[in-house]
Amino acid sequence: MSLPAGEQAFPWAEIRFKNGRKDFYFNQENLSLHAGEAVTVSTPHGGHDIGTVSVTGELVRIQMRKAEADPAQENPFVIYRKASQRDLDRWKEARDREQDLMLRSRSMAKQHGLEMKISDVECQGDGARATFYYTADARVDFRALIRELSSVFGLRVEMRQVGARQEAGRLGGIGSCGRELCCSTWLKDYRSVSTSAARYQHLSLNPTKLAGNCGKLKCCLNYELDQYAEALKAFPKSQRVKTKKGRADVQKMDILTGMVWLAYKEEPGRWVAMKAEDFSEMVAMNQRGEEPTSLEEKEIQLVVQSTEPALIQPEEGSLTRFDRPKGELGGKNRKSGGRNRSRSGNQNNRQRPAQNSSNTHGSAS
Predict the structure, then answer these.
(1) Domain count for the chain
(2) For 8-35, what is each residue's pLDDT tens digit?
(3) Confidence of residue 236 (pLDDT cuts 50, 70, 90)
């Protein structure tokens, strides 16, 4: 889409690096950039890095406003040029070292007795610098480890601590919903999640089901929390109601359909379904000192329609109606069948001479 007359393209671009890391860079050379192109960019510690263009144009302005990044900042990161084949080859060599660097750095950290887990290593595009991402429960003194890593690998080393959610976002994976993790695709604002979010949504407080790949509560528990909190306003806070037939307690609430199931104290196995508005009206009557006649006057009969095909019931008969005939049996029965055939064959052979002798006598006569 062409810009209006007199308007210039937004001179910033969003560049994506390894494992979803993104940043904004100033297009000082006014290069014609497209999503998916590899570019060479500046770094805060000197040298250059290689990234991929993810967003260009006016969408970058919106992304920078969301990230609270100032387009008029001084000394911004800049895009040098489109990556050449030499830049890409050098970048590939640096990326190929990352797995070996991570494994060897883990063994070194273990030798130093450091309580830390190095989860990922990201090498700079020019191969002169490497960033080690780690998680730790307490403060770690890794100065001796940095000196050893720098001397062994010949790199400038930077250690960066991340949380459990950031670690899962960098490593990526598939969630229980079957889709790629939100933290590794689009979610960048890691808000705290508490068990009250599961209670509001009436979810089972099962840690194995509520925890994500990071071991923390799933971020998606907050997505619909506001809608559930708004829908709960239609339900009274009281969990019981007194009727002339007896006291009844709430057994189940369905927030999405606005239904409540209650059961009498004397009949806990029989549940009565009613709308949330009717239940609120009964609670209001109790607050006025009145008691409704019974729950049945507001009961709703729910009809469950099954979409599964009806099962075909077998005909009644003998207990051996499912057994196969002896001739169709396989396995060990074949051997017994062979023995029977051999016995019958021997009997036939024994009878044949008698038949032949009778024939001979008949011809002689």
Answers:
(1) 4
(2) 889 999 999 998 889 999 999 999 999 9
(3) confident
Assess if residue 39 is contained within a domain: yes
Q: What integer pLDDT is reported at residue 171 of this predicted model?
A: 87
What 3 state SS string does 157-200 have? EEEEECCHHHHHHHHCCECCCCCECHHHCCCCCCCCCCHHHHHH
pLDDT in tens, 263-303: 998 888 889 999 999 999 999 999 999 999 889 888 888 76
Adjacency order of strands within the sheet including 240-243: 240-243, 246-254, 259-264, 272-275
- Asked if residue 136 belongs to a domain, the reply is yes
Q: Which amino acid is at 259?
A: M
Instruction: List the structure tokens of 89.
Output: 């080859």
Given a contact cutoff of 8 angstroms between Cβ atoms, the answer to whether 13 and 25 are in contact is: yes
- The percent of residues above 90 in pLDDT, for the chain, comes to 50
Residue numbers of the domain that contains 120: 92-162
- The predicted structure's pLDDT at residue 308: 62
pTM score, two decimals? 0.66
Cα 207 from Cα 195, distance rounded (Å): 10
Q: How far apart are CA 251 and CA 244, in angstroms?
A: 19
Distance, in Å, from the CA atom of 304 to the CA atom of 306, rounded to the nearest integer, reads: 6
Helix (H) / strand (E) containing 39: strand 38-42
List phi, psi (to 5°) of 202.
55, 45
Among residues 46, 66, 83, the one where a domain terminates is 83
Q: How far apart are CA 117 and CA 105, in angstroms?
A: 10
Q: Summarize pLDDT for 194-213 with one digit per residue, the tens.
A: 999 998 888 888 888 999 99
pLDDT for 329 beyond 60: no
CA dist 344 and 211 (Å) reads: 70
Identify whether residues 149 and 197 lie together within a single domain: no
Q: Is residue 157 part of a domain?
A: yes
In the chain, what is the straight-line distance between the N-terminal and C-terminal CA atoms, in Å? 116
Burial of 38 per CB tally in 10 Å (0-12, 13-18, 19+): middle
The two tokens of residue 111 are 């030798």
Q: Which residues are CB-contacts of 9 (< 8 A; sequence separation ≥ 6)?
A: 3, 57
Last residue of a domain, one of 190, 205, 229: 229
The secondary structure of 120-137, three-state, reads: EEEECCCCCEEEEEEECC
